[in-house]
Amino acid sequence: MRASASLARWRGWALAGWCLLAPAVQGADGRVAVVVAAQAPSATLTLDELAQVYRRRRQFVGGLRVQPINLPAGHALRRFFSHTVLQKAPEEMEDYWRDMYFNGVFPPFVLASEEAVLRFVAATPGAIGYVSACALDRRVTVVLMLDGGPGCSR
Of 64, 76, 125, 143, which alpha carbon lies 20 to 30 A from 43's? Predict the structure, then answer.
């Protein structure tokens, strides 16, 4: 009985220690990177310009036709991005997209994961997406960094 209590206490301390170290280990700095392909012409965007791109009111950035990419509505990064950039939850944008659809404007494509966003953005001229800062690699270039997002999911 005493040995199992001791083991349980040790496991509890190990778990508590991991929880304290996890943000550093995972790179959970709460930064979300808005990205384009690495070979895209250099450009930067303001938060307002990014909102226009994701509302499909701005179609060109740096001379390229823009193709915004979203993560699924329930994804923590999507929720953060929508609240930060569009000042609305993904669900609150549904009426907006219904109205836009009747005017021939379609919502951004939705991809299932950050890796899918990275692959699509890297391979598609004009594509723009967002991923956790810890997911960044040489395939993409950051055009805007958003602070205060969810921790890294990797």
Answer: 76
